[in-house]
Amino acid sequence: MYSATFIFDKKQFDPEFHALDLEIAAAARLSTGYLGEESWENPGTGRICNVYYWSDELGLQELIRHPRHLQAKASQERWLNGYQVVIAKVLRSYGDGAMDHPTLRTPGAPA
User: Fold this and answer.
1) Could you read off the pLDDT of 19-78 as tens digits, one per residue?
2) Cα angle: 96, vertex 91, 2; to 5 degrees
3) Terminus-to-terminus CA distance in the chain, angstroms?
4) Which domain range does residue 46 map to?
5) Which CATH number goes with the domain that contains 77?
6) Distance of alpha carbon 19 from its chain centroid, rounded?
7) Is 10 within 8 Å of 79 (Cβ atoms)?
């Protein structure tokens, strides 16, 4: 399983940003092996963190090469005050099973 974490500080969002953001999220959801996503915002700093999960690297690569994603990356300075992307291979995930989570939607995950 792979995850891509997009961490960013907001600058100024406009209608073009919102439209592009929706298209990229839709592309992620349609990509091969997509398992789910999460979003977090730090209320003190306004920093946002979006995490996407895939069963393998293929879907992640599809999103990275998607034309709208490439457009957003090229234009990020218009809307963001900085960003960081963390690509990770998930080695394991565990919990008490009481909550739904994308890492439970992969073959071989504990029931």
Assistant:
1) 998 999 999 999 999 999 999 999 999 899 999 999 999 999 999 999 999 888 888 888
2) 105
3) 16
4) 2-93
5) 3.30.70.100
6) 16
7) yes
